[in-house]
Structure formats: C-alpha cells, structure tokens
Amino acid sequence: MEWIPTRAAGLERLAQFLPHAGRAYAERRNIDFGPQDRSNVSALSPWLRRRLVTEEEVVAAVLARHGFTAAEKFIQEVAWRTYWKGWLELRPAMLEQFDADRIALKAQLEADRHLQRRFARAAEGATGIACFDAWVEELRGHGWLHNHARMWFASVWIFTLRLPWQLGADFFYKHLLDADPASNTLSWRWVAGLHTQGKHYLARAENIARNSGGRFAPYGQLDEAALPLSEDVPPLPVTPLALAPRHDGGPCALLLTEEDLHPESWDLMGEIKAIAVLPGATVAVPDSPAARFSAGALADAAARASAHFGVDCAKVTANEIPAWLAQQGQTTLVTAQVPVGLIAWQLRTVEARLAADGARLVALRRAWDDLLWPLATAGFFKLKTRLPGVIARLGLDPAAPRLL
Ligand SMILES: Cc1cc2nc3c(=O)[nH]c(=O)nc-3n(C[C@H](O)[C@H](O)[C@H](O)COP(=O)(O)OP(=O)(O)OC[C@H]3O[C@@H](n4cnc5c(N)ncnc54)[C@H](O)[C@@H]3O)c2cc1C
C-alpha cells in the first residue's frame, strides 16, 4: 500500500477498493493480513482525514456501486469518523483536558526513570511481545495500522504494559498518517473504558491469533483479566453547535487548512481574490511518513486551488494571516470549518485580531457535518439510525428518493 498525498491518488485508491466495499468488506474487514495486503479495507483514512477525498464522495461512490444494504457496514465505519468528530465538537473541553494531561505526563516521564524505561521499551518496540513490537515497527515505518491492530495495540499498552493511555494516544498522534484529534483521542478512551464508562476493550491472544492472518499468537503474554480504567470527573456537558455561517457573496480570500483540502467543493459564492495555505494540523515526527504525507497534501491542495480559482497560493503562519489578508486588500477570509484541535486553537486568536481590523473569518460547515455532528450527543447508535435519512436528504443514494 502506497499512500501518495494527492487527491488524484486518493480517488485512485477509492476506485481500486470500490468492488470490495460491499458484503466482502463486512465479512473480512476485521482481519489484519499485515502491511503487504490491505485489500480487505479501504486504507482511505489519510485522504479522508484531510478531505483530500470527502466522506460524501466516498459514500456516494459506494452506494452507486453496491446499494445501501450491501454497503451499510462500510458506510457505518465512515460514519464512526463523523461521530467522533461530532462528539468532540460538542464537548471541546475534552481535548483541552487531554492536552493538559499529556503535557503533565511528559514532565513526569522526565522525572520518573522507571516510567521512562517502560515507555521507551514500548515506543521502541522492545517489549518482547512479538505482535506489539511488530505493530510499533509498522507504525513507525508506514505511519498506518489496521483498525484491529490499533485496538489491540491500545489495549496492550493500557492493560498489559500498564502505561498511561494519554502517552499512547500521543505516540499514535505523532506517527499516524491519519492522525486525528477526535478519532485518535476518543478511540483510546473507548479502549480504556472511559468513553462508555465501565466498558473497555481487552485484547485477547485468541482473537489476535484468529484475526492476524496467522502471523501472531501471543498466548500467555497479555493481561486478559484487567479491569477498565475509571476517572473521577463528571460527564462533560454538551455544548450545542453554533449555526454555521454562510458566505453570502462578495470578494474574499480563501484559507486552506489540513482539516479540509478540497476547496473545489466548498459552498463559495463570491470572487476568490487570494488564497493562502496554513500548515500544521498535526505534530508528526519530523521526516516521518506522516510528516511527508502532511506536507505533500498541503502542496497538492495549494496547486489544485491555484489552478481551479486562477489565483496564486501563499503559505502563511497563523500569526501572519491578518497582515497577509490586509495586503491582499480583503476583509473576508473564508475557510472550511476547523474542528476542535491545534488549528482551531490557533484560529481563535486570529479571529479576534481580524475582528479588531474590521475583517472577518467565515468558516463554512459542510452539509454532512451540519446534519450528523449534532447527533453525537450520546452513543453511536443515534447517529447510525439516522444515517439513511441523512444520506437521502443529501441525495447521495441514487436509489433513494431525495428528501428536502
Ligand atoms: C486507538 C485507535 C486510534 C485511532 N486513531 C485514528 C486516527 O487518528 N485517525 C483516524 O482516521 N482513525 C483512527 N482510528 C480509527 C480507525 O482505526 C481508522 O480510521 C481505520 O483503521 C482506517 O483504516 P481504513 O481507511 O482502511 O478504514 P475502513 O475500514 O476502510 O473505513 C473507511 C473509513 O472510515 C473511517 N473509519 C473506519 N473505522 C473507523 C473508526 N473506528 N473510527 C473512526 N473512523 C473510522 C476512516 O476514515 C476510514 O478511512 C483509530 C482507532 C483506534 C482503535
């Protein structure tokens, strides 16, 4: 599997996977055959993460090929991504808490030699648990793991190696091509038993042996009786989503961020006078596959946007945005909604500075997010049951009547 950081390569992978996205996916998706064989899953996550290819495009293509019944499992998996994004968007304080914990644990690592050694053994893939050590090598070398391997990895990290889940999530975040604050942080919490309190995911040797294509059999090496983690904090309140602003026409500048690199499908009205790209949604290890994918994806989007809108694309830091916008003689900066995470935190300050200059940031929300994020108030079930209605409303299923 080669992850090339362009929209064209993402669409090519989608076309290649499409025949397998129906019943075959539902039957075989849980098997991790290893890095040489990714034919049973889409491996689209690095492209979807940045919306080089969008959820709507993927769902529409799969529906056109297989119809809803056969493609339901695959579509539900895509919707898990949306569920985690929505869940975090409704409870942004969760990521701030995670970040504070992560920083405190990093400081503890410096001071606590014993913890440092145990962490280093895990992060270097030197635990002696062959499957775990192989996943570390795969993660470092390819920047990607199969979903089941991610679940096993997180479970072994938390319950067998007894390391803090936040350090594991941080380790993943720095190496994954698809590193996403919502999917990553909340999946680690789910494995730990903190998302659905008291329900954790325990990796079992028998399950690993059965689903790893005969590669691993860690009998006797895992703690298969560990209890879920718990935390002594009340559930976070749900903050309703603010109404998404619209771009009501008029000249504007565009800001591309790694949260949405398909500006060609943004709901734009006015004339585009200037474009800038803002790097840095992730904190990938320098020169890692993840860092290279991230840089390549931004370059691809900048080139596409330039060609599509007929305007040069500049590279700016968050700090430079207000001055750059003023230089372009513009007062409206349009971007796609930036979900909770590093860029959203940076843009808070930028937005205040723009307002002080009499300019404004308009963050457009895609219809997919607008309809589905508010359903992430509790468990996945609510969103899952409403999916067919949302798909019909968006006109993604050629076989379903379009609802207005
Ligand atoms: C501990 C842990 C950490 C994770 N961290 C991330 C992360 O940082 N970024 C990320 O995109 N996914 C993350 N996932 C979810 C999932 O493992 C990957 O999205 C999936 O493995 C990607 O492979 P694929 O593209 O072949 O998925 P497919 O099975 O082909 O599914 C299609 C798409 O649906 C989405 N998807 C599928 N399963 C999930 C899921 N369980 N949660 C969220 N989205 C899903 C992905 O966008 C994926 O590309 C994590 C899971 C775990 C258990």
Structural class based on helices, strands and sheet pairing: alpha/beta
Beta percentage is 5-15%
Task: List segments where confidence is low: pLDDT < 50 over at least 5 consecutive residues.
Answer: none
What overall form do the CA principal axes indicate? globular
Radius of gyration: 22 Å
| CATH fold category name of the largest domain | DNA Cyclobutane Dipyrimidine Photolyase, subunit A, domain 3
Q: Would you write up a description of this structure?
A:
FAD binds at residues 25, 74, 178-180. This protein has helices at 7-17, 23-28, 45-49, 55-90, 93-111, 113-123, 130-142, 147-160, 165-175, 181-192, 205-211, 289-309, 321-327, 342-356, 367-372, 380-393; strands spanning 252-257, 272-278, 313-315, 332-336, 360-364. It has 404 residues and is of the alpha/beta class. It folds into 3 domains: 7-89 and 370-393, Alpha Horseshoe (Serine Threonine Protein Phosphatase 5, Tetratricopeptide repeat); 92-211, DNA Cyclobutane Dipyrimidine Photolyase, subunit A, domain 3, CATH 1.10.579.10; 252-364, HUPs (Rossmann fold, 3-Layer(aba) Sandwich), CATH 3.40.50.620. It has a 5-stranded parallel sheet, sandwiched between helices. The longest helix is centred in the first third of the chain and has 36 residues, at 55-90. The chain is globular, with a radius of gyration of 22 Å. Bound molecules: flavin-adenine dinucleotide. Residues 29, 41-45, 48-49, 77-78, 80-81, 84, 146-147, 150-151, 154, 172, 176, 178-180, 183-184, 187-188, 191 line the site of flavin-adenine dinucleotide.
